[in-house]
Amino acid sequence: MEPATQVINLAGDPIYARVRDQLRQEILGGVFAAGARLKIADLAGRYGVSQMPVREALQQLQGEGLVLIEPNKGARVRKVDEAFIVNVYEIFGALEGLLIRRATPLLSAADLRQSRAIEQAFEAAGKQGDLDGSLRQNQLFHHLLYQRAGNAEALEIIERHWGLIDCLRRKHGFGPRRIAAVIDEHRRLLRALEDHDAKTAESLVRDHCAHAREDLVEQMRE
Amino acid sequence: MEPATQVINLAGDPIYARVRDQLRQEILGGVFAAGARLKIADLAGRYGVSQMPVREALQQLQGEGLVLIEPNKGARVRKVDEAFIVNVYEIFGALEGLLIRRATPLLSAADLRQSRAIEQAFEAAGKQGDLDGSLRQNQLFHHLLYQRAGNAEALEIIERHWGLIDCLRRKHGFGPRRIAAVIDEHRRLLRALEDHDAKTAESLVRDHCAHAREDLVEQMRE
DNA sequence: AAGTGGTCTAGACCACCTT
DNA sequence: AGGTGGTCTAGACCACTTA
Question: Is the minimum distance from the CB of A7 to strand D below 7 Å?
Answer without folding.
Answer: no
